[in-house]
Design a protein that fits this description.
The model has no long low-confidence stretch (mean pLDDT 97). The chain has 2 domains: 21-50 and 312-455, Aspartate Aminotransferase, domain 1 (Alpha-Beta Complex), CATH 3.90.1150.10; 58-308, Type I PLP-dependent aspartate aminotransferase-like (Major domain) (Aspartate Aminotransferase, domain 2), CATH 3.40.640. The radius of gyration is 21 Å and the shape is globular. Helix 7 links the parallel strand 5 (178-181) and strand 6 (211-214). The protein is of the alpha/beta class. The two termini are 37 Å apart. The strands form 5 sheets. A 5-stranded mixed beta sheet has the order 2-8-7-6-5, sandwiched between helices. A 3-stranded antiparallel beta sheet has the order 9-12-11. It has 16 helices and 14 strands. The protein has helices at 21-30, 58-64, 75-87, 99-110, 124-131, 160-170, 194-207, 218-228, 237-246, 272-285, 296-308, 312-331, 349-352, 362-374, 383-386, 414-429; strands at residues 45-46, 92-96, 116-119, 136-139, 178-181, 211-214, 250-254, 265-269, 344-348, 376-377, 379-381, 402-406, 437-441, 452-455. Bound molecules: pyridoxal-5'-phosphate. The site of pyridoxal-5'-phosphate has 15 residues, from helix 4 and helix 5.
Length: 458
């Protein structure tokens, strides 16, 4: 496979650091072998996350100049509201500073102590915002999602037997709502099919259960539906999006991903009761309900980015750039999650470093080793991200122990993908020399952001 042709040209460039080998070794030690603690200046290619790292277009930057910084009723709020109505089809929306702000408002409103929230695989901040009001997140994704080798085209799908199992086990009153993520991040950026969403709506209607989406990567999911699902081959992305959203009662959205902006988020719904409750809470935690922690200019860039991020031509390039990196690695037999997902290539650390036990944190180790080798920053998505069992306090070792090479949108060229692949392939060839890590500092919440490690001898 060749890298896709970029459907844009470059107008502004940013210089990046190119630390030498000595500095890289020092920098990762100073960072406690946690790539989140590296200084950006010490990074050459930053594949830590696709969150807030997109390059905006000239159209978005132009929009920033018409930011209306009024405290109340800024014109950009109405532009954003209209963009959400036009593209996602929800009637009401509440702006927030980023995705977790929306999760906080939505989940603290809907979750009562002791309740269960089934979801097609957890996400870190989502799980925490279900737990803080006293809920528990449980998994209802199909088994295929837990198997990195399985090439199911819609690994994000819900397993209805699992969902029914929770209803039978806990009783319908204990289920707060069903939470569905699109292009499931922790499963490797894997999509949900339209058929699955449609069936879920029917299933939940029978029980009068609400469905709330984590629509953060819904545009990338919509692209996969068009590419892989019968009947959608020629459907405009916006039509696909509107149909997807029509099967839900509302969504939370981190606009730092598919909306091509550096900050922002919102929740959206057709449910007046949810809207009124969350619009009231937004003023306590985020800001007035016409800005929710965003500046007027941020809302304008977001309104325009939501549209640009749902264009077929752009999405085709985007998904195929990620796929290009995946294909370079697969050609060299490097173990990755298959098929390549929407926003990232995930390395299977258990297969990459089979000589390391789970307690030596293979994914954390591999992410640190890649940085040391080439200045490419990736992140751990495995046991460190998963955290400890709420009840027993023991480490949980999920089946997936992954390193995520996340591709910022419109930021890196195909040559950057080739450089990254070369580094990973180089390490794979000398994988037997890579030793594990010991955790020496562990914070209580979302430990992967701040935990520190030391190298242990092989
Ligand atoms: C990033 C993300 C969030 C949280 O959003 P922030 O903007 O980082 O607060 C929630 N859900 C998913 C699936 C995400 O990827």
């Amino acid at each position: 496979m060749k890298g896709p042709v970029e459907p844009f040209k470059i107008k502004v460039i940013e210089h990046v650091g190119m630390p030498d080998e000595k500095r890289r070794t020092e920098a990762i030690r100073e960072a406690g072998y946690n790539t989140f603690l590296l200084k950006s200046e010490d990074v050459f290619i930053d594949l830590l996350t696709d969150s807030g790292t997109s390059a905006m277009s000239d159209n978005q930057w132009a929009g920033m100049m018409i930011g209306d910084e009024a405290y109340a009723g800024a014109r950009n709020f109405y532009h954003l509201e209209k963009a959400i109505q036009d593209i996602l089809g929800y009637k009401y929306m509440v702006p927030t500073h980023q995705g977790r702000g929306a999760e906080h408002l939505m989940y603290s409103h809907l979750v009562k102590p002791g309740q269960i929230v089934p979801r097609n695989m957890y996400f870190t901040t989502s799980k925490l915002h279900v737990e803080l009001p006293g809920g528990t997140m449980v998994d209802c994704i199909i088994d295929e999602a837990h198997d990195p080798e399985n090439e199911h085209p819609f690994k994000g799908n819900v397993d209805f037997k699992k969902l029914q199992g929770y209803i039978d086990e806990y009783g319908i009153d204990k289920i707060a709502f069903v939470n569905i993520e699109q292009d499931v991040n922790m499963a490797g950026g894997q999509p949900v099919s339209m058929e699955n969403l449609r069936k879920l709506r029917e299933f939940c209607d029978d029980y009068k259960l609400k469905i709330i989406y984590d629509a953060t990567r819904s545009s990338e999911n919509a692209y996969f539906i068009r590419e892989r699902e019968k009947g959608y081959e020629n459907t405009p992305i916006i039509e696909i999006l509107r149909e997807m959203m029509s099967y839900s009662d509302g969504c939370i959205y981190s606009s730092k991903k598919d909306c091509l902006v550096n900050i922002g988020g919102f929740l959206a719904t057709n449910d007046k009761e949810i809207f009124e409750a969350t619009r009231n809470m937004v003023v306590v935690y985020e800001g007035l309900h016409t800005y929710g922690g965003m500046a007027g200019r941020d809302m304008e860039a977001l309104a325009r980015g939501l549209k640009e991020g749902a264009e077929y031509k752009y999405l085709k390039y985007r998904i195929n750039q990620v796929r290009y990196l995946g294909s370079l690695l697969m050609d060299a037999s490097v173990p990755i999650v298959k098929p390549t997902g929407g926003h990232a290539v995930f390395l299977n650390a258990l297969k990459f470093l089979p000589h390391l036990s789970r307690e030596k944190w293979p994914a954390q180790t591999l992410a640190a080793a890649i940085y040391e080798d080439s200045g490419v920053r990736s992140m751990e998505r495995g046991a460190i991200s998963k955290g400890r069992d709420k009840v027993t306090g023991e480490n949980i070792f999920p089946k997936l122990e992954l390193v995520r090479l996340t591709i910022p949108r419109r930021v890196y060229t195909n040559t950057h993908m080739e450089y990254t692949a070369d580094s990973v392939i180089n390490l794979y060839e000398k994988r037997a020399e890579i030793a594990g890590l010991r955790m020496v500092y562990e914070p209580k919440y979302l430990r992967f952001f701040q935990a520190r490690f030391e190298k242990i001898d092989l």
